[in-house]
Amino acid sequence: MTGHSGDAHPTPRLPTCEEVLTFLWAYLDGELEEEKRRAFDAHLSRCESCTAYLATYRSTIALERASAQSEGTPAEELPDDLIEAVLAATRHPRS
Ligand SMILES: [Zn+2]
Asked: What pLDDT, in 10s, does the model give residues 14-29?
């Protein structure tokens, strides 16, 4: 009867999908320790569903930030000011 006591080679355990999803915000905010980030990256590199979720999560955050900046107006890729400036320049080229 020999039990495994004191493993000399602790295998780095990859986080489960659930853990990845739970700490996704920390991962994206860069608040995870280097070691955990690597474990996350390793999991994401071989898990399609988490990668897909991460992409969705990222775009959701981008939308939320954009709408937070413009107070409820739908998120646009370009600020109105810039679009107007470009349109004005196109319509009335300065000579
Ligand atoms: Zn996963």
From this structure: 899 999 999 988 998 8
DSSP code at position 30: T
Specify the pTM: 0.54
- Measured in residues, the chain has a length of 95
Q: How far is the CA of 46 from the centre of ligand 1 (A)?
A: 8
Q: How far is the CA of 44 from the centre of ligand 1 (A)?
A: 6
The CA 11 to ligand 1 mean position distance, Å, reads 18
Residue 54 is which amino acid?
L
- Quote the CA–CA distance of 55 and 89 in Å, as a whole number: 36
Helices (H), 17-75: 17-22, 24-28, 34-46, 48-69
